[in-house]
Amino acid sequence: MDERILTAIVPAIGLVSGLIATYVSLQNRALLAEVRKELAELESRIILRLNGLYLRKAEAELREALLEERLETLVERKREAASA
């Protein structure tokens, strides 16, 4: 009788531990997929922010150059008006 119980319990324990391992493995995969998704979203946000900063910097440089050009034009006109 004891041998029959042991022959039934040992495979049952193996089956339960296999099922638990499978469940834990699936949970780990799901967690890993979620982390990868969050990392991809974070990377996307960082790249968009950096691109926005660089674009704004380039726009500011262009505006500054245009402003300098306009000031030079105004100074030149004043000089011409003063000399005439």
Describe the structure.
The protein has 84 residues and is mainly alpha-helical. Helix content is 98%, strand content 0%.
Strand portion: under 5%
Name the poorly predicted regions. Answer: none
Determine the number of helices (DSSP H or I, runs of at least 4 residues): 1
* Helix/strand order, N-terminal first: H
Task: Tell me the span between the first and last alpha carbons.
Answer: 124 Å
Q: What's the β-strand tally?
A: 0
State the gist of this model.
The chain is built from one helix and no strands.
Itemize the secondary structure elements and their pairings:
Elements: H1 2-83
Keywords:
mainly alpha
